[in-house]
Amino acid sequence: MTFGIDRLLADAALRKPLEGKRVALLAHPASVTEDLTHSLDALVAAGVNVSAVFGPQHGVRGDLQDNMMESPDFTDPTYGVPVFSLYGEVRRPTEASMATFDVMLVDLQDLGTRIYTFITTLRYVLEAAAEHGKAVWVLDRPNPAGRPIEGLTLRPGWESFVGAGAMPMRHGLTMGELGHWFVHTLGLDVEYRVIAMEGWAPGAAPGFGWPVDRLWINPSPNAPNLNMARAYPGTVMLEGTTLSEGRGTTRPLELFGAPDINAKAVIAEMQRLAPDWLAGCALRDIWFQPTFHKHVGQLCNGVHIHAEGRFYDHAAFKPWRLQALAFKAIRALMPDYPLWRDFPYEYAFGKLAIDVINGGPALREWVDDSAATPGDFDSLTRPDEADWAAESRDFRLYPD
Q: Source organism's superkingdom (predicted)?
């Protein structure tokens, strides 16, 4: 298959509308061609007049490990063009930065999860482009989580930098498709174009969204592999808890644990409560010691989620429900466990981080309600998932 950047570089006719234009590139470390050339270098070599570069969270260079670590603006040392951070002093493009280009190329590898902030940055870019009369092209890339949809829809009033719009956690769209959805739902008057992929088959084994003959490059420092991308719609919720999500280990956001939990007991309780929510993967109890972040230097007992190899069933795997079930199991085993972490997650003050992550309090309330069952949770969630499946289908550019 062929990614958007590779199609643009290979086809002079696709690039022709860029002639005589000042072109900006929104990129990160995974913005590479099939032969691993960074998109900036490849576009310049192809004769595109790149006048500015923009970087999302974690920076163009992907050098900032943790969340809420801001990147500065700088001048690219090779090409001498300005590099503007969209996760520094500002989250939205400024009037000054918008004046540096005519067309912005967005070449960002996404993870298919609402909370992954690159889609919020896409929304902000589209809104700024509509305001300033600029064009936006998305050079499309695969959604490595594929087409499955899972999660509650973000509720009104819960929009944030990790909540770009009323969609579920696992949204099933590519960046190019999401751009069309933003343009439509926000009513934006903007010149928007997608350089679509060729040959993307999100329902095909073994990658189910990710072409396994294409190398995985971390789009952010703690997104090291396909297993993480598959688990992430669930494990990202750990950022709103006192449990470690594995930052400071070699397998971040594929596992969870703490010094004071019994992983085997948690897995057993999960199996008792809702065995069907554990389908499509394997759970393994482990020990780990984070070198930074939560529980640094402490021996933790935890659970590793393996959504890979012979254990993986794409249609059956439910990462968001699985992680919610883990919280429910811990609450059942230890009713007074201090599970929820209270801090201004992504600068959303006055709200619990777990609620900001989920776009509302419903998941936390279900976990904390000892009488609430997995069936109750499904009854709450399934209508949202069905509604999004119907709505999002209108914006799909690729057959399943």
A: Bacteria
238: pLDDT strictly greater than 90: yes
Cβ(346)–Cβ(160) under 8 Å? yes
In the numeric block, the tokens 């920076």 are attached to 59
Query: In this structure, what token pair is assigned to residue 43?
Result: 């576009």
- How far, rounded to the nearest angstrom, does the alpha carbon of residue 214 sit from its chain's CA centroid? 19
The span from the CA of 81 to the CA of 101, in Å, is 11
Tokens of 293: 């972040």
Query: Of all helices (H) and strands (E), which one includes residue 139?
Result: strand 135-139
Q: Which amino acid is at 90?
A: V
**Structural tokens at position 137:** 């092209």
Per-residue model confidence as pLDDT tens digits over 12-36:
999 999 999 999 999 999 999 999 9
HSE (side-chain half, CA atoms, 13 Å) at 105:
33
pLDDT tens per residue, range 259-305: 999 999 999 999 999 999 999 999 999 999 999 989 999 999 999 99
CA dist 145 and 111 (Å) reads 7
Greatest alpha-carbon pair distance for the chain in Å reads 65
Q: Which residues, in sequence order, are bridge partners of residue 85?
A: 55
User: The pTM is what?
Assistant: 0.95
- Is residue 346 pLDDT above 90, yes or no? no
Q: Which two tokens stand for residue 226?
A: 């396909």
- Which tokens belong to 173? 């769209």
Domains, the chain, in order of start with CATH, read 4-217+390-395 (3.40.50.12170), 226-360 (3.90.1150.140)
Per-residue confidence (pLDDT) for residue 350, from 0 to 100: 86
Per the structure block, which two tokens stand in for 122? Answer: 């896409």
Say whether 52 sits in a helix, a strand or coil: strand
Q: Nearest CA to 380 among 392, 368, 362?
A: 362
Whole-angstrom Cα Rg for the chain: 21
Mean pLDDT score, 240-247: 97
139 Rama sector, left if φ>0, alpha if ψ -120 to 50, beta otherwise: beta
d(CA 238, CA 222): 13
Asked if residues 320 and 233 have their Cβ atoms less than 8 Å apart, the reply is yes
pLDDT digits (tens, 9 = 90+) for 297-329: 999 999 999 999 999 999 999 999 999 999 999
- Consecutive H or E run containing 227: helix 226-235
